[in-house]
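SEQUENCE-TO-STRUCTURE ENTRY
===========================

Subject: a protein chain together with a token-level encoding of how that chain folds.

Sequence line: the amino acid chain in single-letter code, read from start to end.

Question of interest: how does this chain fold, as expressed in backbone structure tokens?
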Amino acid sequence: MHSAPQKPEPHGKIAEIRATGSKRYAEADIVAACGLKVGDVVGREELQAAANRLANLGPLSSVRYRFTSKGEDLAVEFQVEDAPTVPVWFDNFPWFTDGELTEGIKHAVALFDGTAPQQGAILDTMTDALQQMLASRGVKASVEHALIAAPGSEQMILSFSLAGANLTVSSVQFGDALASESPRLRDRVSDLVGKPYSRIALALFASEQVQPVYLEKGYLRARIGPPSARFTGSPTSTAPPNLVAYFPIEPGPVYHWAGIEWVGNPANKATLDALVPLKPGDAADGVLIEGLWKRVEDEYGKYGYLDAKVTAQPLFDDAAKTISYRVVIAAGVAYHMADLVITGLSVPAEQKVREAWRIPRGQIFDSVYFDEFLATGLKQAFGDYPVHYDKVGHLLRTHPETATVDVLLDFQ
């Protein structure tokens, strides 16, 4: 008995290719990345391979295809969805501007828009493109990439960097006299000088060291960076290249303090005003202002408001060069002490902690006392009693439905 011959896979010539569904990428770029073109003779196998090719790139989280036929002509449509992406950061490529690096990658990668997915074949193609750009300048180093938090931010970025580039910062320059003459910054440039060149390290320095110098003086809208670098000698020299790190700075005007409007808080206004470290007319010290919001939260924490949220809206008066704030406080519930849970100690040592704890069950909880107890109270509780631990894990377990809080201490 002979089996019936299988029907050959139907094929047709592509007359049209569409790509729909993306809000990020141009349709023509998606079509170019699929690997098919008008005039190709394809069947389901080739169409599925093209869909897989798009899906494996990374920028698209979902790829499906459909087609309609008219005679031997096919109209193909890829239905896609965009995948989450993060900004791309070039860490230590001083031979090129960001624009040159971006254009170099775009030339090799159709679906590159300055961002990238966290995984996918596109990352290898981007790496290869950067590697070829380096080779064109005679640079021998390996391109690597990693997902990290952006300097001074919680936003994630995909950082491309060079391993083996042997780039060193020889000096640091600032684009404004206040920074250039700052004793604090003169003492801290050793964090950069003599160290490997990294724009991430420079950006962290700008955020953690340079910006506070300006905030303290009332330059609340100072623009610092992005930092850059230039070669001290020929970038093609056979000697290890040294770089001058440069921080462009536009200080802007000095703003002066004009007060606070407190909104939505049950606390006494005079109590809150007493927390403010500035008087009307003072230079608006941005570091003190930022610390003020933590002091307000602590003040509420003394009275059990552990979920208190402080929303500070700055109100700039550019004509008068002043700043005031509208501060909205959502206090939430006032928590009372419930259980003190202690683990990791012997019974006698645990008893000493319980005897030292000063918030009885049912009393309003004081978060400031809790912080002080962790910092100094525990050592005082033990005194000369021999107890061994490396660290204390701690947690406040709140129960909003009963307005109570458990204190958990784990001695490790």
